Automatic annotation (TrEMBL):
<keyword id="KW-1003">Cell membrane</keyword>
<dbReference type="InterPro" id="IPR003780">
    <property type="entry name" value="COX15/CtaA_fam"/>
</dbReference>
<feature type="transmembrane region" description="Helical">
    <location>
        <begin position="217"/>
        <end position="237"/>
    </location>
</feature>
<dbReference type="Pfam" id="PF02628">
    <property type="entry name" value="COX15-CtaA"/>
</dbReference>
<keyword id="KW-0350">Heme biosynthesis</keyword>
<dbReference type="InterPro" id="IPR050450">
    <property type="entry name" value="COX15/CtaA_HemeA_synthase"/>
</dbReference>
<keyword id="KW-0560">Oxidoreductase</keyword>
<feature type="transmembrane region" description="Helical">
    <location>
        <begin position="27"/>
        <end position="56"/>
    </location>
</feature>
<dbReference type="GO" id="GO:0016491">
    <property type="term" value="F:oxidoreductase activity"/>
</dbReference>
<keyword id="KW-0479">Metal-binding</keyword>
<feature type="transmembrane region" description="Helical">
    <location>
        <begin position="244"/>
        <end position="265"/>
    </location>
</feature>
<keyword id="KW-1015">Disulfide bond</keyword>
<feature type="transmembrane region" description="Helical">
    <location>
        <begin position="182"/>
        <end position="202"/>
    </location>
</feature>
<keyword id="KW-0812">Transmembrane</keyword>
<keyword id="KW-0472">Membrane</keyword>
<protein>
    <submittedName>
        <fullName>Heme A synthase</fullName>
        <ecNumber>1.3.-.-</ecNumber>
    </submittedName>
</protein>
<keyword id="KW-0408">Iron</keyword>
Length: 347
């Protein structure tokens, strides 16, 4: 009987698998948390309260250096709009510093070149995002404010991608799984992402211009069905590597729909059930801001699910630390990888 299993033996001079530092992953998590809870959460509240133009200048705040600006005076006199906008700017600066820290930690300890460049891309996106926010003020542009929100979602999704590809789970994930379940998950998740970007644009029009309400509602049905199918397909693969991500997609989707209905009811009122919109009520602030944040989380969860499915289907790496040995054969001394083919040639 011929033993055809590939046989490997470590080479004496083999360097062994690269030991990865946990720091890039930790810094990426810190960056995501600071950005979503701080910068994005505050930014969403600023937009909901219409406080984006609390200062007419940028990068200075009220003519002063942003870092030296004393917003305690604004707290004393109850200028909530200035306090929120100023803290949003400070949170944005912190996001920038953490993005620099991410790049530094990746370039110091990350062996994969493409991951190091992903970090640089995130930093570049953060800079563009900051510039868009500043120009929105100096140009007094609502369209730029909307684009600032949309691009912010892409920045957050890229940050989550950094968290994923620097994780232990990513390094240990199975590879080479080209089952129909994984392929279906990849396609459905890709299609959902395309529909979600369109829905994002429609949502921005609702939020900033008060239009496209019913188009956005139609988009919600399409995105809801696609995201449910993508999450369901991922769960049905039974792959551990996809399971939690799929649960996140489905959970965030459910939350997003509930928050969307609340945002609608609290902003426009629902005549049929006698609900009247109360501008800047706590429920309105939470539901409108939450709907913006959950949209970013849905985009991020889908991007991560797409990357995970692609990872599962990708080719396993060629083992560099092992040298193939000739396979043993009980009937022949010819190594299996040198057996004659039907045509007589060796393979
Ligand atoms: C999968 C489903 C949904 C997604 C992905 C989604 C996404 C979005 C996005 C990205 C925004 C704009 C946020 C911003 O620019 O900051 C938005 C705004 C909005 N969406 Fe949705 N949405 C969904 C479902 C719904 C549903 C079901 C409703 C209502 C029934 C709804 C009602 C609204 C309203 C009223 C706004 C404006 C909120 C505001 O003025 O602050 N959405 N949506």
């Amino acid at each position: 009987m011929i033993d055809t299993a590939p046989q490997y033996a470590p080479r004496a001079d083999a360097p062994g698998p690269p030991v990865r530092s946990p720091w890039p992953h930790r810094v990426a998590w810190l960056l995501v948390l600071c950005t979503v809870i701080g910068t994005v959460g505050l930014g969403a509240t600023v937009t909901t309260l219409g406080a984006g133009m609390a200062f007419l200048d940028w990068p200075t705040s009220g003519g002063e250096n942003m870092l030296a600006y004393n917003f305690f005076n604004d707290i004393k006199v109850g200028r909530t709009d200035k306090v929120l906008e100023h803290v949003h700017r400070l949170a944005g600066a912190t996001t920038g510093l953490l993005a620099i820290a991410l790049v530094a930690s990746l370039w110091i300890s990350e062996p994969r070149r493409w991951v190091r460049w992903l970090g640089v891309t995130v930093l570049g996106m953060v800079i563009v995002q900051g510039l868009a926010g500043g120009l929105r003020v100096t140009e007094i542009s609502t369209t730029l404010a909307m684009l600032h929100g949309h691009f912010g979602a892409c920045v957050v999704a890229a940050m989550f991608a950094c968290v994923l590809v620097t994780s232990r789970a990513w390094a240990d994930s199975p590879r080479g799984l080209r089952s129909s379940g994984v392929t279906t998950t990849t396609w459905l998740t890709g299609a959902t992402l395309a529909a979600l970007l369109l829905q994002y644009a429609l949502g921005g029009v609702v939020r900033h211009f008060g239009g496209a309400l019913f188009e956005h509602l139609g988009g919600a049905v399409l995105v809801g069905l696609l995201a449910a199918a993508a999450g369901g397909a991922a769960l049905a693969t039974g792959e551990r590597f996809l399971r939690w991500n799929a649960a996140a997609v489905l959970g965030v989707l459910g939350g997003q729909i509930v928050l969307g209905m609340l945002a609608w009811a609290t902003r426009f009122g629902v005549a049929a059930v006698g609900t009247v919109a109360v501008q800047h009520s706590p429920l309105q602030i939470v539901s409108r801001g939450g709907h913006t944040v959950f949209a970013m989380l849905l985009l991020s969860a889908l991007v991560c699910q797409f990357l995970r499915a692609r990872r599962l289907a990708s080719d396993p790496p060629v083992r560099e630390t092992a040298a193939p040995l000739p396979a043993r054969s009980s009937v022949s001394s010819v190594p299996v990888n040198r057996l004659p083919t039907a045509s007589g040639a060796l393979r």
